[in-house]
Amino acid sequence: CADGRLIARRVRGRVRAPRRPSAHRRIHIIVMPLAFPRRRSSSPLADGAAFTVRGRRAPTVAATTLSLARVRSAPRSGDRTSSRTMIVNEVVSSLAAKANAKGVATNAKVKMTAKRLLERDNPTALTVHFIKPSVGIFLAGGIAGALAKSCTAPLDRLKIIMQTAGASRASAAAVAAADKGLLAAFVAIGKTEGLAGYWRGNVPQVVRILPYSSAMLYSYEAYKKKLTNKETGELAVPARLLAGAGAACTATIVTYPLDIIRLRLSVDTSARNMGDVARGILAREGPLGFFKGLRATCISIAPYSALNFCAFDLFKKALPEEIRNEAQGIATASLMATALATGSMYPLDTIRRQMQLQGSSYANMFAAGQGIVAANGIGGLFRGFIPNAMKNMPNKSIQLTSFDVLKKHITRSEAEYKKELEILEKENKKRG
Predict the structure, then answer these.
(1) pLDDT at position 332, please?
(2) N or C: which terminus of the chain carries fewer CB neighbours within 10 A?
(3) Which 3 state secondary structure label does DSSP give 339?
(4) Residue 32, SS3?
């Protein structure tokens, strides 16, 4: 009724509340039942109106009952409305005094919410509010790897075709690579498979690189912390090499079956999708077919990753301090490190790819190396090196730069979120 709404509105105006009350601290006035019913009722509640002041998730802090008998017994001479107004004023004063004495705004602790962070104009802290920093670092590695691989997928496809050209002639591009070389293979992909052909095999590659890059970059950070000298806080070069090799092996073991599927899908154009390739491997080679060449892969990737990560850290440390942690400095360090690692370790990568092929008769990596040299000379170990270098340099640059930017954002978000928690804790102490 009108009187009930009036009392509720006036009590809210008198109760001291925060400037920006959050959802669980808003003041509620509960009126039960109608304050001035037109007809009498046999219900006990109909003889009075109960008013309660509370927060949404807080206990009752003030309550009173307006007796209708007092209204009915008001003097008939004079204005009945004035009598009602006096009674309403009395109820409002009583409720407001009780609520303020107990503290309606302090009866519940405030929790950190996304809405509060946005209201305080601190969206940076939202990242750590929703995900833990360690989970954020893990996801950042996957995002950085997927972005880098998608940008350089055409060069990766060309590199694989060049590496396997001597052992496979399953596609027009492979034939062109074996007979005419790099440019002919690149043109053949576009002519026979269209624009999408340059990204053939990229879906399983991205599916593989998400966990691979996450596991590798997260493992590298974890291994570096584990191997850092506790007394000096320094990480020696052998420890950096070990951390890089361990990170690469960890990530390779986790994602190796997807790498096999991606290779077969890139080389064999008769396979329609990842499912076809996986079923074919199971039917012809059994479960161990998904791990064919794993030893050679770890042997080739471990030194490459160790050298790449170690060189990146050392090159970055050698840069001028003003650009060391900027995007251009990170990109420069990663380009130099990738060039050094790729040129040193590429023959091992070629041997690994040859051993992964279906029908490969090589018993071990030494036999594979001898077979490649016998068939194609020393140059056979470096087939596809140019597109690989063209792919790896921007790939690693994009990956490491993206990861570093995301890692900085997570670190900054963690610091901002910690500040917001300290402010909130002080506010709760004042209320309590």
Answers:
(1) 85
(2) C
(3) helix
(4) strand
